[in-house]
What does this fold into?
Amino acid sequence: MNNNDPNQPEIIFRTRSGYPIGEAIRSFKLALEESGAVAAGKSIHYTADLVCSGCFDLWQKMLWDYALDHIGISSPRIFHLLHGRFTDLQAGCVKMTSEAFYRNVEYQSAMAECVLVLRSCPRRPALKMPRVPLEAHDDNWIRTTTQGVNPSAAVGKVFNGTYDLQVVKRVGDEFAKACNDGATEKAFFWMKWLLEEEARLKKDNKGSLSNQERGPPGWPNKFRCHIGFFIINLLTELYKELAAKQAVRMHDEFKAILNLYCLPNKIISQKRRQDLMCLAIQIVCEVPRWKIPAAPSLVKDPLALERAVSHSESFFREVLAYDPPIGDLMKEAKKSGKTLVVKGKTSKQLRQMNVEEHLAAYDAAIDQWLTGKN
It folds into this structure.
C-alpha cells in the first residue's frame, strides 16, 4: 500500500492498548513531569504499554533523556540505578521471548521502580552552554590565551605527545585548571573547544587532534581515537585526585556516568554522551564545594516505594490482555519524533559545522556501524 496515495486511508499505528504511538510517547513524557499519585499511575501504565508494544529500547531512551534534561547533578545516583537496572533488564530481554519478558513480574517491578524513583528526584534548571566563537579556533588566539597556565599532573598522565597534537596539552591544562577552580562554565568552554576543533579538522580533512586509541574495546578503531575519550580519561584522573583528598565521594555514580559515555550503545546518542560528559564535569567542579560531597539518597521512603511498585503487575496485566500491536512501532516512533533538517544554509555555514551538527553526524556513523549498514 502506498501511504503517499491521497486516496488511501491514513494508517495509524497504535500501541497494545490502542493509543496512536505518538500520543503514547507524549503522554508518557507528560506523566513523568507531573506530580501526584495519578501521574505516577499513568507513568507505570504507559511504561507497560510502550514496553509490551515492542518499544523497550525507546522507553529506556526516554528515561535517559529525562534524567539528563531534568535531574543531572541534583541527584547523580539516578544514573547508577538506571544503568544497573537497564543492564539486568536487557539481559532478561535477550534470553527470553518477548511475551515471557513482558509477563515476568520481577522485570515488571524493576521497570516500575525505575519510573517511580526517576519521578521522585529533584529537578534542576537546564544547563547553559557557553558559545565558542570562530576566532577561538585561530592558532594565534589559542597560543595567546593558553600562556602561563601551570602544567596539570592529571593531563601529564593522559596526554601522549606521540599521538596527540600539542594544542591538546595546552587546552587540557586550561580545562584541568577550570575544574580545580570550580569554574564549571569555563570547563564547558574548553570541552566544547576540543569537540569543535576535532570536528573542524575532520571536516577540512586535516586529520584529528589525536590518534591515540583511548576508547574501550567494542568501538571501531577510528572512533576509539575521538577526542571525547581524552576528556573522559582526563576527568577520571581529576576525580582520582579529588577522591584521594576525600573531597568527593561519588565513586559508583561517577563510574556509572563514565561507563554510559563509553558504552557503544545506540540508545545513548552522541548528544547524550556530551550531556554525560557535562555531568561528569559538574561533579568534578562543584561537588568538592558541597557541604557533604556525596550523592543524596534516592529513596526517602522505601516502604512507600515498595507498596507503589507492588501494583505494577496489575498495570502490565491490563495491557497484556490485548493482542500485540501490528507493525513496527519502534520504526513509527522514530518517525513521530523525527525533526527535519533546516534547509537554506549557505556553503559557508555548512563549512562552519558547530558541535551539535558534528555530534549528529558522528551519531549517524555510529548508528550505521551498530546496525551493520554500509
Q: What stands out?
A: Confidence is low (pLDDT under 50) at residues 338-355.
